[in-house]
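LOG
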Amino acid sequence: VIAAGGIFDRDDVERVFKLGASAVQVGTAFVATEECDADYRFKQAFVDARSEDVTIIKSPVGMPGRAIRNKFIEDVENGKRKPFKCAYQCIKTCNYKEAPYCIAEALLNACKGDLENGFAFCGSEVHRISGVTTVKKVIDRLFGERR
């Protein structure tokens, strides 16, 4: 069993191992690292996120996802359509003729730091990120010795 979701530090790892997991999958904690190739503004959105900023959205491909609330998401929730041309046709479940925005375009924009034309998916513990760090420090926080 590989545990995923809500894992940020050693206490979280130990908790899921006690429940029977034999491995963990961690994503959000590695976004705000120097080694991550996302734009600094994307990483900063993770650093600035508060727990109340995290929301569940329904993407145009029909799947829910946890994201950091921003103006882009609020505009979509208020019925504003973000015009686009479907350049990707990336997944069959996306009806691009009716979709309010292109998920691929929004995510690429955000990764490049353009959060006015995109948004950041994140994990539930994004609010625990306090600054940009290194992969080594994230690994140490997850598996290092107790201090």
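LOG (cont.) second protein
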Amino acid sequence: METITFNDIFKSNFLEKTSSFSLIDSIVGLLVAFAVGLFIYFIYKKSFTGVIYSHTFNISLIIISMATALIIMGISSNVLLSLGMVGALSIVRFRTPIKDPMDLVYVFWSIVSGILCGAGFIPLVIIGSILIGIVMLVFVNRITVENPYLLIVRYTEGKLESSLEHILTQHTRKHAMKSKSVMPGEDYEITYEVRVKEKEASFVDTIMKMDGVKSAVMLSYDGNFTA
């Protein structure tokens, strides 16, 4: 019969893993992940062009980078743990919709940065993040893209369409009819995609003053509708 000693009671794989744990490497990886996440935070804030800026989403980019680095550090030295982590994370479901494709780009950037920090590729993540940040600032803030406008006119007389076409031809560089609806009570609604001349929008007032026009609304579309 084998005798269990006091040392056998406290001998476990947990203690062995703790003894092989590198505290300095982990702290360096997390600090770099935090620094890169903070860099992504400022790039997102500087290059944001959407409708409503979300501070909580921007903060989450830092947490995503650090949390991903933490996960990679934990599974990098244990294959069984990595398989278990994949199974555990597969049950997580994110219900928050991401409307702007650029927000998805920033989330992916944070995840990739966390993976590289956790794997120890510190120079790669620093150089890559700096280059990506420069590209984001140049293409978002320096290069202007003219977005189209949607003109929605609601009127009561079908003969007004020729007058609308005449006004749009005079005051816009380009226009195209996108949809036309006929509603009960002989109400009409027509939608045009227009390219204005030097942001000129005074022709909307002219359309609104026409007899038979109930409403005239022009919306800018840059991934989100802006009234």
